[in-house]
Design goal:
The structure is a single chain. This protein is of the alpha+beta class and 560 residues long. The protein is 29% helix and 28% strand. The chain has three domains: 108 residues, 2-Layer Sandwich (Double Stranded RNA Binding Domain), CATH 3.30.160; 104 residues; 257 residues, Neuraminidase, CATH 2.120.10.30. The strands form eight sheets. It has a four-stranded antiparallel sheet with strand order 7-30-29-28, with no helix packed on it. It has a four-stranded antiparallel sheet with strand order 8-9-10-11, with no helix packed on it. A four-stranded antiparallel sheet has the order 12-13-14-15, with no helix packed on it. Strand 24 and strand 25 form a beta hairpin. Helix 5 packs antiparallel against helix 6.
Length: 560
């Protein structure tokens, strides 16, 4: 037992009971309780319960068979009750383990610990410390953050329900379109059927008409042959012989002619396609409890695998120049190909599946919500594109009085960068204010990234060879200059707050701390295939870094 264990620990018995008799305990005795009184909220041994029952005949006493109902009725507040021994009071502190406990915990778990303190002996001293006095405000601040997160999650739940209703409407709309398509196919098939029936009917009617005509001719000639006039009979005989040859020829032809039949063979591709389907489409909820894994912000990544993916298309006139990357909720990747005036959609294998052409070169791109993204086009403003089905479509445009280069979005706030400033707008294009400006050089703000929580903005200032971190009011929080970060050109941030910088002159990818103050690790260099990289992106679902530039391929780094 610890040398400085308080003398207040019970000295009467070494036996440890789950529940000790309350009256005996008050007398300094250690007897096991066999009963519990709900009204008195006390425990009684066999001897004491007899006295209790004489005094309180109407009280309901619970025996050991109802021991589960005893727990927590120790005459203590919930805060004072020992989590491990429900009827014991927390009155000890093990400083070795920084752990609260009761005297039973000390006897069983902390017998060999060196520093055991009696809580009444230290409680008064702690209350006078600065930390204790400031603690309530810290708790209130944390509680406020928890409430904000709870409210945000509640809003997320509601938006999820709204998204579910919208998707259900899309499914019904798709089903209606499919029904319309099948109705059209049925109508066309019926038209073909009716035409074939008509043609077959005419074809058979011709044979019937031939038979009928010959039958009538032969009947007429037969009647004439049987007449009493020799000349008429002879002429009829000769003509009838000709018709007989014609009839025999027709009989021979029609006797071997097969019956006309009509059959229907369904297009096997329809059944094969439909049978191969399990659903009308895919739905994805991300993140969810099966796919979301929190990675501490302090975690420093390593590169597990490297690969390349070609994004140049046969229809591309020029070599690719990938200047912007963002990700849709389904895991699809959008990239801007500045030289070919296109935004390209990539699937999970980083293959181009759709494109959207623009009149001028698209600069940078950011995800807005759902399958919508925003693209900057210099003096042409910002164009919003939507991925629907298998196509990319421009849905609306915003015009501004300044050059549009960098762009980022968070929670309905649109941030657009020019050469030296960052402007804040609503999603409808209403100007809120200029939040940051740096005129130390001609070209200080190429692009920037808002953190996932929307509190900070990372600005790679290429010409000044530094990374600036500001808040959304424009206050500079930190500035980072590092030999590895030479001409920083692009920054991306993970959901958990990990920050990655892509540097053009040094051809390196660097992980930095979330405050933007220190370099943590170099993840990729020129030897890994990087050559003047221009843009970087961290994929939310696969935890990969995608790096693009003035090349026809993307460099993909799988992290761990």
């Amino acid at each position: 037992m610890a040398s400085n264990l308080s003398s207040s620990v019970y000295q009467t018995s070494d036996l440890i009971h789950d529940f000790a008799c309350s009256p005996c305990k008050d007398d300094g005795l250690n007897n096991e309780a066999q009963f519990f009184c709900d009204q008195c909220r006390k425990y009684y041994c066999n001897n004491c319960v007899a006295h209790h029952n004489k005094l309180f005949r109407t009280h309901s006493v619970l025996g050991k068979q109802a021991v589960s109902k005893w727990v927590g009725y120790a005459g203590l507040s919930p805060i004072e009750i020992c989590d491990k021994h429900g009827d014991k009071k927390l009155d000890m502190l093990c400083e070795d383990h920084d752990e609260l406990g009761c005297y039973v915990c000390v006897s069983l778990t902390h017998r060999m610990c060196q520093s055991i303190k009696h809580i009444p002996d230290i409680a008064g001293k702690v209350k006078s410390t600065t930390e204790f006095k400031q603690f309530p405000s810290n708790v209130r601040l944390t509680s406020s953050k928890l409430q904000s997160l709870s409210d945000k999650t509640l809003q997320n739940k509601q938006s999820l329900k709204d998204a579910g209703k919208k998707i259900l409407a899309e499914i019904k709309s798709l089903r209606k379109e499919l029904n319309n398509t099948f109705d059209e196919l049925e109508t066309k098939t019926n038209t073909i059927l009716q035409n074939q029936l008509h043609d077959a009917d005419e074809f058979l009617q011709e044979d019937i008409d031939k038979c009928t005509q010959l039958h009538e001719k032969l009947r007429t000639f037969l009647e004439a042959i049987q007449s009493q006039q020799d000349d008429t009979s002879y002429i009829a005989y000769r003509k009838c012989k000709d018709k007989m040859r014609e009839a025999e020829s027709l009989i021979q032809e029609l006797s071997v002619k097969p019956d006309t039949i009509l059959t229907f063979h369904s297009d096997p591709r329809i059944e094969q396609f439909l049978y191969g389907l399990k659903t009308l489409g895919g739905t994805l909820a991300f993140p969810c409890k099966h796919s979301w894994k929190y990675i501490p912000t302090s975690h420093v990544f390593n590169v597990k695998n490297r690969s390349k993916s070609i994004v140049k298309m046969q229809s591309d006139v020029h070599e690719c120049f990938i200047g912007g990357i963002c990700e849709l909720p389904g895991g699809e990747i959008l990239i801007t190909d500045m030289k070919n005036y296109k935004v390209k959609l990539l699937n999970s294998q980083y293959q181009v599946t759709a494109t959207c052409d623009f009149p001028v070169n698209p600069n940078y791109i950011c995800h807005i919500a759902g399958n919508e993204a925003a693209v900057t086009l210099g003096y042409e403003g910002v164009h919003f594109i939507t991925f629907t089905g298998s196509t990319l479509t421009v849905t609306r445009k915003l015009s501004f009085q300044h050059l549009c280069l960098g762009i980022s979005h968070h929670n309905g706030n649109l941030y657009v960068g020019s050469l030296t400033a960052i402007y804040h707008y609503t999603m409808s294009g209403q100007f809120i204010g200029k939040i940051y400006e740096d005129k130390s050089s001609f070209y200080t703000i190429s692009r920037f990234t808002v953190s996932r929580d929307g509190t900070t903005i990372f600005i790679p200032t290429s010409e000044c060879k530094k990374l600036a971190t500001i808040d959304t009011s424009g206050n500079i929080l930190s500035t980072l200059q590092d030999p590895d970060i030479d001409w920083p050109i692009s920054v991306c941030v993970s959901d958990s707050g990990h920050v990655f910088v892509c540097s053009q002159s040094s051809s390196k990818v660097t992980q930095i701390d979330k405050e933007g103050k220190h370099s943590l690790a170099t993840l990729a260099i020129q030897a890994d295939g990087l050559k003047n990289p221009d843009v970087i992106w961290f994929t939310r679902q696969t935890h990969r870094l995608i790096v693009g530039g003035e090349v026809n391929e993307l460099s993909v780094f799988e992290l761990e």
